[in-house]
Amino acid sequence: MIIYLHGFDSNSPGNHEKVLQLQFIDPDVRFVNYSTLHPKHDMQHLIKEVHKLIEESDDTKPLICGVGLGGYWAERIGFLCGIKQVIFNPNLNPSVNMEGRIDRPEEYIDIGTKCVADFREKNAGNCLCVLSTNDEVLDNQLTSDALSDFYKIIWDETQNHKFKKISQHLQAMKAFKE
Prior knowledge:
The longest helix is centred in the first third of the chain and has 18 residues, at 39-56. The protein has one domain (2-177): Alpha/Beta hydrolase fold, catalytic domain (Rossmann fold), CATH 3.40.50. Strands 2-1-3-4-5-6 form a six-stranded parallel β-sheet, with helices on both faces. 42% of the residues lie in helices and 16% in strands. It has eight helices and six strands, in the order E-H-E-H-E-H-E-H-H-H-E-H-E-H. It has 178 residues and is of the alpha/beta class. This is UPF0227 protein PBPRA2397.
């Protein structure tokens, strides 16, 4: 089972396309929707939904995947639920770069203080990070600097922030999932 978390643009047709692409490596892909506007509520909702999906699944090696803001959540929720994560262009600092787009960006700071201390050290090796060199939203060199001590980084030379096409990374994801 692969659990897919969308980014800030939850209505993007690219989300459906990514789900279809993910089905090439696992026919059981679950799309979990969340508001994107209320971080504390989103975190509670995502933990509950992901935990429920894991409990209902026979897959002994489920994977959670997200793009942008979905990558932020996939890393954390996957860690908290004990499953591997694949994150594409994760938004590591939504409290800074989501200001003006969501109601309470400061809640991300609060969430960060409530998570397990040094969670990336404890999560080392359980997350695969794919970063675009053409990300028009985030500086992915900063993202790489923050994550490369803990996770394998794959650089993509063609996609932009929304990562419409993930197919070139499916085999790496499949190998990582196993």
